[in-house]
Amino acid sequence: MSGASRIADDVRSGARSARDVLDEHLEAINRREPDIHAFNAVLADEARAAADGVDAAVARGDDPGPLAGVPLALKDNMCTRGLLTTCSSRILEGWRPPYDATVVERVRAAGAVVIGKTNLDEFAMGSSTENSAFGPTRNPHDLTRVPGGSSGGSAAAVAAGFAPLALGSDTGGSIRQPAALCGVVGVKPTYGAVSRYGLIAFASSLDQIGPFAATVEDAALLLEVIAGHDSLDSTSIAGPAPQLVAGLDEGVSGLRVGIVDEMTEIDGIEPQVRDAVRAAAAGLEAAGAKVDTVSVPSATYGISAYYLIAPAEASSNLARYDGVRYGLRVDADDVSHMNSATREAGFGREVKRRIMLGTYALSAGYYDAYYGQAQRVRTLILRDFERVYEQFDVLIAATSPTVAFELGAKTADPLAMYLCDVCTVPVNLTGHPAMSVPFGTGDAGLPIGVQVLAPALGEPTMFRVARAIEQAAGR
Amino acid sequence: MTAYETVIGLEVHCELATASKMFCGCPNEFGDEPNTNVCAVCLGLPGSLPVLNAMAVEYALRVADALNLRVPERSVFSRKNYFYPDMPKNYQTSQYDEPITIDGWLEIDGVRVGITRAHLEEDTGKSQHVGVGGRIHDAEFSLVDYNRAGVPLLEIVSEPDIRSAEQAKRYVEELRATLLAVGVSDVKMEEGSLRIDANVSVRTPGSPEFGTRAEIKNLNSLRSLLRAIEYESDRQWSLTQAGEKVVQETRHWDEESGRTISGRSKEEAHDYRYFPEPDLVPVEPTQEMRERVRASMPELPAAQRARYIEQWGIGAEDARVLVDVPGLAAYAERAVAALPGDSGGSAKDVVNWVRQEVLAYINETGLSPAVLAPEMLAELVALVAAGTISRQQAKDVLAESLRDEKWPRTIVEERGIAQVSDEGAIADVIDRVLAANPNVAEEYRAGDEAAKKKKWGFLMGQVMRELKGRGNAQVINRILEQRVAGE
Ligand SMILES: [Zn+2]
After folding, report:
1. What is the whole-number distance in angstroms between the Cα of residue B44 and the centre of ligand 1?
2. Domain that holds residue B215
């Protein structure tokens, strides 16, 4: 298998057909998907039609676009017109959206071939993809281990070679953490850089769609396609997508890089992960960057603030699943009992837990102590990071405190599961971009990821640094 | 003087007549086939996102200018969370602690009623509960029409400054006229584009404290508003007099029984869990937008009434009717403008016809004055002023003119009813009649009251017969006077 940019070049030049590329990937899926379960749905027929369309365009002499013929896996919380979109929840049973998410339109317009809808923790709530109503996804590097989550299906699909590219969504680390655990690149762009239109909301002020790829370059290529203003999303940033691929190899000489203490030197972090961050820093230093450690004290409170704000927004976002208009309906004597019977049967335990947490955090008499306080902490964290970015161009940190853990290891202990996000949630709260880059392997050959963080709209620099880390890792 | 004082604050929900809905491009239309004006956004489908209609903001700014409201630099949308099947997202996007306008007032008959705020929010769909009791809890099944879901609403909240049901009615009338004048709504209560909740409490006159209030919902007409406030304040006062407590609650007005009925029970009491809507950004009207709105503001009803009273010499009540009935003032203005300068007809005459005949016609047919031709009324007024037809004849002519869209002069000609008002012609006839009846003038002058009356009637009758009944009675009277009595 080759990378996305290579495939696109070959398909555009006519050296390979999109159909051949697709068939190779479908074959890989046939071989290993039964063990991995990356997909909720493999869209073989639709993909073949799309690939044939790309080939026809090439034959006509038209340019199918920068992702010509590249198979792409979509997290199953992005709307696809006429195709089941489940959020890995029973509550959306049978629902086919009447429209495509903006990112889906954009990748298709760029020539990508949507190959399937990937598994996730129900409504993107989780860090292991074990909260899926359709069963867990397994880590392609070790089938006894989780791929991370919530975008575990997308990360596993790229890691297993099912698709060179995938899209995920990141609310508290749901792209970066599974990327780290699966040994692929995963990017959470600046909030507002990528349209959320058609992304089924978990926590609207934190959700952001981003790419998965095997390489930094491919991730940059995909982000260029999906980023840029969308009038259907009021929180979308004005202006065109940033240029990322062109400046990728400009190097890091002279860049000021900070290692974030609170996201690296923490309780419970595995030494192998901490060592990887330090080694990546050394690599950047060798490439000419100025590296120092830096403290962002308020980042420690990120996880507490996050687990109030995200459930609060979720409790409201998920209120619409009531059995009245679409998806599952469990009949009962009257409307309100039908609502509760439907929600009782349709939502899994973790989703219910967060709806309750969030409802409580917003309720009269508690709002100020919980939701209000969390918002103040959020502001504090943002100010701290902005201050740090006066002295540093980018920051680096661990992505996940651990490598991939075994299935079931944390399912009985929600708090332990929540702590998987300790290094990733701060940037969701600030809206800043961050990405995870593979940096070698640890025990039992399991991948380790290093996180690169940048100020708002700092993606071009972030990608250059990620590219340098990738090179330092010898890839 | 009543034994108690009623304290009223009103919440008026006004549907804004924007072309499209508040957060999507669906048409904002009343009365279409159910669930035809809907899309992913106003159905709250998973993944859809709202985009604020800039026109709704502009309309709110127009109302702000008309109601003396302040516009803070920024306002914020919030989610009001509660479950109801006609609300697609099970939250309503509304404004809570940072509304788009605050602190205004509206003057009613010389009294200022404070307006706390006017904020933007989306309307809900409409449920229809079928079978058994026809309410959500006992219906066999329910149907929901989401055409109204997402229609922009402006909720205008008054201070508790209103002191009687009549004043509440006047407040709504003035507010309605104002909203109509600034062009933000069709303010049709019967179609639900203006809906009212009333907060009512009672107290001993002069007491500085407010009593416990009840919020009355389902007031669909001015008549309901009047009756409900009167009923509710009586009810509360009776309770107080009996030593019982008024409960703070929502009550529904039941038009049929003429009573307010206790609404939600305690266990259903709502905690709306308001929080800022993360899918929208704060609204920050630009100076340019505010100035554009200010420059395009029309004359407000109070100023308009004052102008009519002064320029046309009409009464306050006439002015009020003209301004309150949609389209009537514009119709009257065009009719006055079309009146020929030398016709002898006045603006006041025009208004009289408008208030009586034209208004009756509008009420009867349900037509808007905008579809009538005011030039036709102007011609009619001129015909009456010239004495061509009598007022009584003019009523029939106007009725036909309105109904068949026919010019009054044409009708008069067709019917052959034009009066003879020409003084020379009438004088000739009178002279002929007097010559043919030489004694009558003498008998008239010599006779007592009864005889005078009799002889006068005889002469009038002779003259009219000569003129085939079309003589202008006023002119005949005047000339006869000169010839017979005036020597
Ligand atoms: Zn719509």
Report:
1. 9
2. 5-294
How far apart are the two ends of chain A, measured CA to CA in Å?
A: 16
Q: Which residues of A are catalytic?
A: 75, 150, 174
Integer Cα distance of A249 and B185 in angstroms = 59
Residues with CB under 5 A from ligand 1 (ion): B 24, 26, 39, 41-42
Q: Is the dihedral of CA B41, A168, A22, A6 positive or negative?
A: positive
CA A168 to CA A73: how far, in whole Å?
9
Please indicate, yes or no, if residue A42 is contained in any of the structural domains.
Answer: yes
As a whole number of angstroms, the distance between CA B413 and CA A101 comes to 70
- Residue type present at position A436: S
For residues B406 and B436, state if they share a domain: no
Whether B12 and B156 have beta carbons less than 8 Å apart is answered as yes
How far, in Å, from the CA of B40 to the mean position of ligand 1?
Answer: 6
The CATH number that applies at residue A131 is 3.90.1300.10
CA distance B132 to chain A (A): 13
Structure tokens at A283: 């690599």
A35 lies in which domain range?
Answer: 4-226
Q: Which of B294, B318, B342 is the last residue of a domain?
A: B294
The answer to whether A369 faces chain B, any CB pair under 8 Å, is no
Expressed in angstroms and rounded, the spacing between residue B50 Cα and the centre of ligand 1 is 9
Query: Which of B22, B43, B48 to mutate to probe the A interface, most A CBs <10 Å?
Result: B48
Domain termination site, one of B294, B325, B352: B294
Cα–Cα distance, B361 to A129 (Å, whole number): 71
Quote the number of domains for chain B. 3
Phi first, then psi: what are they for B426, rounded to 5°?
Answer: -65, -40
B246 near B211, Cβ under 8 Å? yes
For residue A295, tell me if it sits in a domain.
no
Exposed, middle or buried: residue B162 (CB in 10 Å: 0-12, 13-18, 19+)?
A: buried
Q: At a CB cut-off of 8 Å and minimum separation 6, what does B411 contact?
A: B397, B400, B401
The vertex-B132 CA angle with B127 and B134, nearest 5°, equals: 25
DSSP structure string for A266-296:
-TT--HHHHHHHHHHHHHHHHTT-EEEEE--
Quote the CA–CA distance of B464 and A420 in Å, as a whole number: 108
**Is A336's CB within 8 Å of B83's CB?**
yes
* Angle CA B80–B82–B85, to nearest 5: 120
Tell me the sheet residues that pair with A447. A441
φ/ψ of residue A417, rounded to 5: -65, -40
A424 close to A434: Cβ distance less than 8 angstroms: yes
Taking contacts as CB-CB distances below 8 angstroms, the residues of chain A near B273 are 315-316, 359, 362-364, 367
A60 touching B (Cβ < 8 Å):
no
Residue burial A229-240, b: 16+ Cβ < 10 Å; e: rest: ebebbbbbbeee
Print pLDDT tens along chain B (487 aa).
Answer: 468 999 999 999 999 999 999 999 999 999 899 999 999 999 999 999 999 999 999 999 999 999 999 999 999 999 999 999 999 999 999 999 999 999 999 999 889 999 999 999 999 999 888 877 667 666 778 899 999 999 999 999 999 999 999 999 999 999 999 999 999 999 999 899 999 999 999 999 988 899 999 999 979 899 999 999 999 999 999 999 999 999 999 999 998 999 999 986 554 567 999 999 999 999 999 999 999 999 999 999 999 999 999 999 999 999 999 988 888 999 999 999 998 877 778 999 999 999 999 999 999 988 888 788 899 999 999 988 888 888 888 998 888 988 888 899 899 888 877 778 788 888 888 888 888 888 888 888 888 888 888 888 888 888 888 888 888 888 888 888 888 876 4
Query: Which residues are within 8 A (CB) of B139 and not within 5 positions of it... i.e. 6 or more apart?
Result: B129, B130, B131, B132, B133
Predicted TM-score (pTM) of this structure = 0.88
